Amino acid sequence: MLENFVKFFKELDRRVKVTIAGIGVHNWSQRLSRQYNQLYAYGLGANPVELGILSSIGAAASSIVSVPMGWATERYSIKRVLLFALSCTAMVAIIYALAGNWWMLIPAIILGRIANIMPLTDIILINYSKTKQSSTVMGFSRTIWAIPRIFAPLIAAVIVTSFGGINTQGIRPLYYLQFGMVIFVLLFISVMLKTQIEPRKNKGKSDSKRTGFIQDFRELFTGEKWLKRWMILRTIRQFGQRLAMPFISLWMVEMKNATPYILGIMGTVSTIFSVFLPVFAGRLADKMGRKKAFYILRPFMYLRTIVLILAPKPEYLILAGICEGIGQASNIPFLTMHWEMVPKEKRGRWLGIRGLIELSTIPATIIGGIMWQQGFMMEVLLLPIILEALIVMPMLFTIPDTLKKENQQTS
């Protein structure tokens, strides 16, 4: 098994290898503070509604910037856009580290949502992988990234505990460490990612004169039958996820009395389960289809929420971490299908449209904050499940699986 693993990695395109290595370090650094970001803002004085407002500000910034960034990946270079995003991430870490009040986090929230690294990474992985292995490569990347992340939550727990516990002083050192690691990744990608993705070339008359910005995005939908339905599906799914996301850590700490070590063990257990499951999910999606793999794995995320609500003791939250580790593997077939909805030459603009979907999160996080403050904490956690089960899953059933589409194009 290990020999097959190594052989598979050696056969990957060099651009894929460099991306997996660099982004792996970046993701590890982000994992350190992931469970503490909302608690840090809360410690700086933000109430639940203000936490929702912070997330909404970030969503608005992401939506505004996503379209020109997606367009720039085709017009110029995805490497340049990736380096810009990494620079923003470094600025986010230092702003968090120096913040003395919750409103000082606003520029960091904006920059953090602008610096959305993962879609850029996925475009490279999909573009430079064989069609019948694209989902496996995406799962393989998550496995590589998960191995070092196993210890990140426990390391974070030790650091937070050593510097004073779950408060601003205990959490602050995590951001200084993040800053140093992101700078390293920025330099690594800049030097090692030699080959850039070439800008999109226009055809016909546009060879001598570039087409307009708006016309480029109109052309994205030409000949693509299912894109509008997919956008509606993703909007509903994103709305539900953003409704609850800012408040899960608060639920565990305030309602279930989770300690730093419980949070650390949860994160570690979730990561352990996510080491090999992404490859399994990728292979499953490449054999059975993207949709079937998603239908099999996604219900574990629903089970995680049920465990979070019903857990009688903090220790039971570890089971939620296990369910999350399994359920998150469903993102592999879902994301693969998302990028395969359009041809390679349209994926930069598709990235921009993907960002516009974030507009749905602007009211979602504010609504979630208001509901939370009014005492509807459990309902905030349950709404994402209801939306996915009753709307997203049936709608996905009506959209053709992209695995068949890709195979037809290469046959």
Which key features would you list for this structure?
mainly alpha, 22 helices
Short description:
The chain has 22 helices and no strands. It is mainly alpha-helical.
Structure description:
76% of the residues lie in helices and 0% in strands. With 411 residues, the chain is an all-alpha fold.
From the N-terminal CA to the C-terminal CA, the straight-line distance is: 30 Å
> Topology as H/E string?
HHHHHHHHHHHHHHHHHHHHHH
The amount of helix comes to over 70%
Overall outline = globular
Outline the biggest β-sheet: none
Radius of gyration: 21 Å
Mean pLDDT across all amino acids = 82
Task: Please mark out the parts with pLDDT under 50 across 5 or more consecutive residues, or reply none.
Answer: 201-210
Total count of helical runs of at least 4 residues:
22
What structural category do the secondary elements indicate? mainly alpha
Number of strands: 0
Estimated share of beta-strand residues? under 5%
Helix-strand layout with pairing:
Elements: H1 2-10, H2 14-33, H3 37-43, H4 48-75, H5 78-98, H6 106-114, H7 117-127, H8 134-149, H9 152-162, H10 168-192, H11 213-220, H12 227-244, H13 248-255, H14 260-288, H15 290-297, H16 299-310, H17 317-327, H18 331-340, H19 347-356, H20 361-373, H21 377-397, H22 402-410
